[in-house]
Each structure stands twice: as structure tokens, then as C-alpha cells.
Amino acid sequence: METTVKKKGNGRKKIEIKKIEKKSNLQVTFSKRRAGLFKKAAELSVLCGVDVAVIVQSPAGNIFSSGGPSAIDSIIDRYLAATSQDGDRKNNMEIMKEIEVHEKVVKENKDLKGISKMGSEEFWWERRFDDLDVNELEEYIAAMEGLKKNVLAKVQELAARANAAPPPP
Amino acid sequence: METTVKKKGNGRKKIEIKKIEKKSNLQVTFSKRRAGLFKKAAELSVLCGVDVAVIVQSPAGNIFSSGGPSAIDSIIDRYLAATSQDGDRKNNMEIMKEIEVHEKVVKENKDLKGISKMGSEEFWWERRFDDLDVNELEEYIAAMEGLKKNVLAKVQELAARANAAPPPP
DNA sequence: ATTCCTATGTATAAAAG
DNA sequence: TCTTTTATACATAGGAA
Lengths: 169, 169
Known about the structure:
Two copies of one chain form a homodimer.
Chain A: H1 23-48, E1 52-57, E2 63-66, H2 69-86, H3 92-112, H4 134-163
Antiparallel strand pairs in A: 1-2
Helix pairs in contact in A: 1-4, 2-4, 3-4
Chain A binds a DNA duplex through helix 1.
């Protein structure tokens, strides 16, 4: 038998909406809720077909944030372009890699600061990057992380449709 | 007895995260979720003491969004300034009025378009207003509505502190 | 800092007013 | 069209690993 002394989680408790004092607690809550906020934003974006952006200032330091689905679409475009060249040997892992590449590209754009190819409406939110710091970009990347699942779903859908393209009779 | 034939709401059902086709449904979902998103953003802001902004593009048309707590702070400043002039005869209803005034001011700024006093970092998000339309401002106002409770709490706290200022001995 | 767990608080899809 | 109700799905605080 067991000693029955294994009380697991106590379950959620209600909290007041006021500044959290306990610092460690604040950090955890920040992480969880930021993730939740990004998820909700992504869902709203997909469900209603609208562009959504969320910008937060981390407690530690500077600002930063998540981009809209336009960015996601461009990632998908790049992926589909790549697969049509290489055949279908890229897998989901590769898709994730693609996303990470995108993240790097954005980061590099930040370093260049002279961004001229970024003038389109689609990247309005990226225009702010030349004002931002590296930490802020990390926030952005974190946001992209949160969207990976959605991207994956979208990509799979599009890829499946692309593969279903009928060959010439 | 009753005929037991009064099936009320069926309750929430799970939905896929994909673009909603039924237009009426989309409109409802957009409204609800946008409100929810703003609420979550406001909570994150208060709980963690960080600046949060949400920007969404309405399905109907253009962009717009909700501002960070900096805006709230400025509202509080204005309120405290007003109360120190008029004594303490303003009540909570008046505070709400103050907020509405602020909303109008923003709207007017939109019409002026030449905004020069808005150059500070604190109002970065307002800089976009000259690109926006009236409908978008209404969205902004709706967002402010959602934050009124937080403002009220904050104002009461600050007002109490102000009133507690010790008279010269 | 992430991740898993569990018990709950919240958000919300549908239906009804 | 907006608000309220109902029944549930989902998010998340606290604790532990």
C-alpha cells in the first residue's frame, strides 16, 4: 500500500487583480499569462481573419512583443516555395527550422537598422525593430514560439492541399 | 407541474481554431474575444506592473487598438490636478466623466493630425492615430471602457493618499 | 525557467429574451 | 442587434520535479 501522503496540486485559487508583490510569483505569472495572452491573440486572429499584435514590456526590462499573422503567412510562403523546389523531403521538424530562420532574419534586420525591403504594410510592426534592443527581440521570438503550433497546423493544411494538386493526365 | 420542455442554452461547445465562415457568428465571436483579450491584457498589466498594448485589425476595416497604462496614468494626473483645484467634490461618476473627456481629447487629436505635443515615448501608440479612422477610434474608446474599473481602483488609491496628506503642524 | 499536475476560476459558444 | 442564461471548454494558481 502507499502512505496516502501524496497531496498533489492544491488547485487554482482566486487572486486579486493588483500588482503581485512576491517577485518569484510575479515572474511565473508573467510567463504564464503572457503565453496565454499571445495564444488568445493568435486564436482571435485565425478565427476572425484579422491581424493582431500584442506588445508587452517585460518586468525586467524593455518592451516587446508578438507579430501578426501576416508574418506567419510569409513564413508559410517561404516553406511552400522551399518544398516545391526540394520535393517533399522536408518534414515538420524542418518547418520549425524555417520558423527559427525567420526569427533570425528578423533579428538580423534589427542589426542592419537600415531596413528598406521592409516597407510593405504587411510588416508594419517590424518597422519598430530599429528602435528595439536585443532583449526585446527575444520577446518577439518567444511570441513566435507560442505561435508555432498554429503555424504548423496551417502549414500542414496548405502542404496537404499542395500535394493534392492533380498531376497532368 | 411543468412540461419539462424548456431546454435553455445548450452551453459552450468546442470550436476549431480556423476562420469562422458564418458571418454573424464571426461578428459575435470577434466582439467577445476582443473584449476578453483586452481584459487579459489589462490584467497582465496590473498584475505584473508592465505596459501592455493590443492592436487588432477589425474584420470590417482598418486597424486600431488599446493603449497601455501610461495613458491611464495621464488620466489620473489630470484627475488629481482637477480635484486639487476644486477640492474633493468630484466623485467616482466624475472620474468616469474625466475618462470620457480623455477619450474625446484623443479623438480631437486624431482630427488635428498635426500632433506635436504627442512626441513623448509615453504616447508612442497614439502616434499611429493620424493613420486611423473614426471607427478605429471607437474601438479605442471601447478598449478604454474595459479599463475603467482598473482606473477607478487606481484613482481611488491615489486620491486617498492625496487626501491623507498631513496639514502643516 | 519550463513542465506536469490538479482543483478551480473564468471565458465563452449557443440559445433564448 | 444587444443582453442574459446555460453548460462547458479552457486557462491558470499553487505545488512539485
